[in-house]
Structures are given as C-alpha cells and as structure tokens.
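Cross-check.
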Amino acid sequence: MTQEIDNDIIDSPREQEIPIIQPPVLFKETQAVIRQLSSMLDGKFIAYWNSPGGNVCGNDTVAIYEMLEKIGNQDRVYLFLKSMGGDGKSSLRIVNLLRRYVKEIIALVPLQCASAATMIALGANEIQMGPMAYLSPVDTSLVHDLSPLDRDNMRVSISLDELKRVIRLWQGQKSNDNTNPYESLFTYVHPLVIGAVDRADSLSVMLCREILSYHIKEQEKCENISNILNSKYPAHSYPILMDEARRIGLNATEIDPKVHEKLLELNEIYSEMGQRAITDFSDIKYHDNEILNIIETNDQQLYYQVDKDWYYRVEERRWIYLNDASCWRKVEMHRGKMRKSRVHLS
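Predicted model, tokenized:
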C-alpha cells in the first residue's frame, strides 16, 4: 500500500504539462492607492490584510517588524485592518511591537475585523469604522490534539462557551436528576480538551486586558471591556457595530468617507491578489499557490504565499501536504526600480 501511495505522489507526465496557477502581485496598483491615502492622512499608513484563508499568526509579527524597521519611529500610524481572526497571542505581540515604534495608533476598519483582529484593534487609541465594518467577540476556541474528529477526519475546534451552554441545558432539563453531566460529555470531548479550553478562555481575557492597557490606564475599564468581549455575546461571530463598540467603552468613530472609499479600492486589489490559486492535477492531488496575508506601506509590500502540494490519503480520509515552499515575499522600490525577493522568517 505504501508503494502505491508513493507512486501516486510522484509527478506524472500530465502534471508536468499543467502550468501552475500564479496569483497576480499588483504592487504598482496598491502603491498608487496608498499614495492617495497617505495624502489624506496626517500619519504613516500601514495595511494589514488577510485573505479568507489567511489569519493573524506569529510570523506576521516578524514581517511587521521588518516593515517598522524600514519606516522607523512614528508619532502616528493609521493601521488598515481586515481579517477574520487567528491567534490572540500573536495579536498581543503585534500590538506590543507597534507600540515600541508608534506613539498613537488609529485603526481603520472598513470591513470585517474579527476575533484576533479585534484584539489588535483594541490596541489602537481610536477605531475608525465604516458602514460595513464590524468587530467581534474574542471568546476562545481551540483545536486540541485530543479534539473530536469531523467527517473528514480532521480535529474540530472546541469553544468553552459552547461547553458551558451544554452544561446549563443539561442542568436545566435534569433538575431532579443527580447524574453528572460531565460523565456523558466526556464520551464526546476528552477531559484534557475541556481543561485546555478553560485555560485558553482565561488567557483570552488576559490578552485583551494587556492590549488595552497600552493606552487605557484605568484598570477597571480594561477589565470590564475584556470580560464583555469574552463572555457577553451568544455567538463568536456576533457583529459588534460602531454604536455597540462605543457602548462597551471603545473609542469608535466614523471613518472619513473619502478615506473609506480608498480603503475599499485597496481591499478590492488585495482581494484580486488573494484569489484562490489552485492547480488541480487529479481528484486526489492539487497545488495551492494562494496569497494569504499582505502587509504594506509606502514603497514596500510583504506578502505570505502558500506554495505546496496537497494529497488525499484515501485510507486515512484526510489531506496531507507535500513539497512545502511557502514563504514571505517582498516587493519594494529600490532606486526607482521595483525589486522582488523572498524573505526567510521563522
């Protein structure tokens, strides 16, 4: 069986004839919009954009560091945020890094800025939001090595809020029953997973509190906002709009319409760069070349591009990847000329 799998992985003559789809890198187009935005703003502009397949992660911190080293210390930075979330610990690292170089951060949020991206926005002195913008709760869920498997044999994400709701429903319906609800729950969710999720929930509150403390000195206010974002809302995807953001204590304001228009234009270009770039070789093998994350300022763009093969192991009912050459890439203007290079970050 192993020999058959290995033969399937080897490139066939047909695969060698199929050109690998490459997403466009539209540096000139994005730079033109960024120059226009810079003329409207009284501070440095930085874009931090994730595609639907991208997320806030640790490597982004190193990429942002390289960019901040280039632009140096700044009195004010306007940070364009668009992301569905990711790793909250990376959010704290990103905010800490920005605060070492920047005195005042203004977050520009024209669209979704959810979960871990909301945490980054918490580190801004002001959050400027457009009519389609939203933040989200930051209650934690995680994928553990002992999490249950889904129908594709992949580990599923477990949320503490969901576990608590199951317990409350059990206790409400079994009011005259002395049975322990955890005994039945442990059949589906390993006890170590429940413990890990509970610990992650405490971590999420702590991360929010630490991030807010960079610009809010009232400890009670930081604590209150952190607790609201972690436990008030009934769904992790609940959209926190501008008025709601104000009610919970955030400095949320309306974005300038002209700036908003340019941000949407920039997002459209980034969306073209971050389009799906899948090359199908067979029913069980394809190559992924998608651009996931983009960080950009004047004269420099960093983007993370996937570059790997995916193969479906039929007997295990799961996808594995091979030949992973994914990495950060950089485009910059050097002496009036555009220069491309790979950036090796770890």
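The two ends are 36 Å apart (CA to CA). Residues 141-197 form one domain. Passed to J.P. for a second look.
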